[in-house]
C-alpha cells in the first residue's frame, strides 16, 4: 500500500509493442517448436514408448460418472493388482455384463467403498481387490490418492470434461505425452543427483510400466513383460514399499502393536459398515486377493499375515472372498515383477476366476 | 476455464476467429460478452447468476446516481450497491469464517452453541469482479466518472473474460472508453500478445507448478518437529517465487489474451522483488488491488493528510482489509497486518531519517532491496501456512541456526529453487527501472525467437496437469 496520497499513476494504459516483426517471429517460433517436438516424439518412439492414455483423475472420473447413469453396474475397486490382472472382456463374456474399473494404483480402496456406500442409488456388485498393506494403510498417499480422485469427480467442471476428451485425442497419437515418465519433472528426476547425508529419501516409485485404455483396462507394457532388467528394478522398488514404515521413536513394541491393532480394528469396523450399507440397498460386495510371488509374497506373509488381515476382513464383513492361494487353479501364476501378472496371464487368471464368480452368483452373493 | 488447459486453446481460437471475421463492432462485443459468460460458467454454471446480479445492480444504481442530486438519495443508492456486492462477497467468502468465529465466541462466553457446517462453495473470482463493479459505482458516486450509456459495454466491462477471475482489476474509466471504437489488434500487437500468453503460461506451468510448488508444499506441510534452516529458507523462497510466478503468470496471460483481441489491460506487476522498501513493493505487487485500496479506502479514510497517528492507523486498517480480501482466515489478516506494520515502520523511518546518503547508493539500494525481499518472504509464511501453529513452527525453523532439524528437500529441488530464484531476482533487478517491452526491444530477433521457442518447448515438455491458479481461491 503506497503511503502517499499524492496522485501518482502507477500504470499507464498504453501498451508498447517492441519493434520486431512479431508475426514473422511467431511463425519461426512455431516452426522451430514443431520441429523440436517432432524430433522428441521420434526419439521417444525409438526408445520404446508408444502412444498411451495417462491414467489421470479425469479418466477415472469419466468411469465414475457411469455409476450415476446406471447404479446397478458391477464396479471394481482396489489397487494396481486388480487394475492390471482383471480382464474385463472375459468377465463380460462370461458374466454378461461390462464392469466399471475404478481401481487405482497404490491405493486403499476404503474411500471408494465409502463413496459407493454413500451413493443413494448404487445397488450393484463391488469387487474389492485387497492388497493388505494398502487396504489397512491408515493415511498417506494410499488414502490421499482415492480421496483426490473422488474429489475430482465431485468437482468435475464442464471445462475439465472437455479438456479430458481433448487430451485423450492427443494421448492416443503422441508417445511423448506420458505423465508417468516423460514430463520435464520426471526427466529431471532421472539425473539421480547425490543427496545430503541426513536427507531421508521417500521410497522410490516404479518407473512407467503399465498402461490403461479408455475404459481403464490396465495391463503391463510389453517392455515390462519382456525386459528382465526393468522387472528386477521394479522388484527391488517393491521391497521397501511393502515393508512397514520405521517405528516411531520413544514407543515400546507393545505400544506399537497396540496402535496397529487399533488402526486395523477401526478399518475393519468402517469396512463392515460400508458393506452393510451397500447390502441394505440390495448391492453385493466380494473381496478378491490377486497373486503376488517370491520375496514380495514373503514380505506380505511376514507383515500382513492372512490370519490377521484377510481372514478378519471376511469374518467381520461376512462377505464372500476369493484368495488366490485357496484355489489350485488360481495358484502357480508367475508375476514378472512379483506383484502383477502379464497381460496373457491376467486373461487366464480371470478366465479361471469366472467359475468361482458364477458360483457366487448362483448363491446370490454376487 | 483455465488458461493452462486445452479447452482454453480451442475456446480462444474460436473467439479470435469470430472476433476477426465479424464486421459489426456491436456484434463483436456481443460475441465477447457471450464468450465471457461461457468462460465463467465452465467452472460452475449457476454462479453466472451472481455476475448478472452484480451487473444489473451496479448498472441501475449508477444510472440513477447519474441523475440524482439529493445527497441522501445518492447515499441510499450507493448503499444498495455496497450491500448487494459486499453482501454476496460476505456470504460466499466470509460466511463460514464468520460462523466459525461466532461459535468460538459463544464457547468463550460459556454458551454451548453449535451449528451445522454451511458448506458454501466460493464462486471463483468473486473478490475480483466485486471490486471491479464497486469501483465503477464509487467513481460515479464521487462524480469521477459518468454512468455508462451502453448496457452491453458495461456488461462486457464486468465480465471481460481475460481478467474476470483473477485480475488485473480494471477501472471502468480505463475499460469503457475502449468499447467506444472497434478494437482490432495490429499484426505486431497480436504477435506480442501471443508472446505475453506464452510468457505467462511459462511462469505458471513450468516455474510455479513444475519447479517451485513441490519444495514449497514439502516445507509448509511438514508437521513433525523442526526443519533444517537451509530447507526452511529454501522452501519459503520457493513459495515467494511460486506465488509471484503463479499470479503474475495469470496477469501476463490476461494482458496477452486481451491484446490479441485489441484491448489493453493495465500492468499488475512490475518487478516487485526488486522493490526497495514496502511502499515501493506495493507499487509493484498486485498494482490493480493496491491502487484500488489506495483510492477507495486509504484516501477516503484520510490518507496521510491528518497527521502521523491517523496516517499510521489508515495504513494498518487498509492492510488489515487487504489481508482479509485475500482469504477468510486469521492467517491472511496476520499477513495483512504484518505488511501494515512494515509500512508503518517505513513511514516513521522516512520521517525520522529523510536524508541518508548511503540509502541512495547502488549498494545501499541493493542491501535494502534484499532486506525488503526477505521481510516480504517472511510475511508469506502467514499467507501460505494453513494455520498459526504451522506458521510459528516454520518461523522457529527459519531462525534455528543450530543445524538440527529435518533435511526435507532433495538436491534436485534445492537446485531448482536456487536456479529459479536467482533468475527471478536477477530479472527483477534488471527490469527494476525498465519495462519488459523495452528490454525485449533491445534483444536481437534471433534471441527473442530462442527464448520464445525455449518457453514453448518447456511448456510442451512439462505436460502441465491443469492446476488452478492460486489466486482463483481469492
List its salient traits.
heterodimer, A: 366 residues, alpha/beta, Rossmann fold, 2 domains, 5-stranded parallel β-sheet, two-stranded antiparallel sheet, 15 helices, 7 strands, disordered N terminus, B: 474 residues, mainly alpha, 18 helices, globular
Describe the structure.
Chain A is an alpha/beta fold. Chain A folds into 2 domains: 20-49; 57-181 and 208-362, Rossmann fold (3-Layer(aba) Sandwich). Chain A has helices spanning 22-46, 57-69, 80-85, 88-95, 110-118, 132-135, 141-154, 158-171, 184-189, 222-226, 228-241, 253-280, 294-303, 310-317, 343-362; strands at residues 75-77, 100-101, 125-129, 210-212, 218-220, 284-289, 321-323. Chain A has a 5-stranded parallel β-sheet. In chain A, helix 2 crosses helix 7 (141-154) and helix 12 (253-280) crosses helix 14 (310-317). Chain A is globular, with a radius of gyration of 25 Å. Chain A starts with 21 loop residues before the first helix and ends with a helix. Mean pLDDT of chain A is 90; it is low at 2-10. Chain B is mainly alpha-helical and 474 residues long. Chain B has 2 domains: 24-182, no CATH class; 189-473, no CATH class. Helix content of chain B is 69%, strand content 0%. Chain B is built from 18 helices and no strands. Chain B has helices at residues 6-21, 25-41, 48-67, 71-108, 126-141, 151-159, 172-175, 187-220, 229-260, 278-284, 287-298, 308-326, 330-352, 362-384, 388-398, 411-430, 436-442, 445-462. The mean pLDDT of chain B is 90.
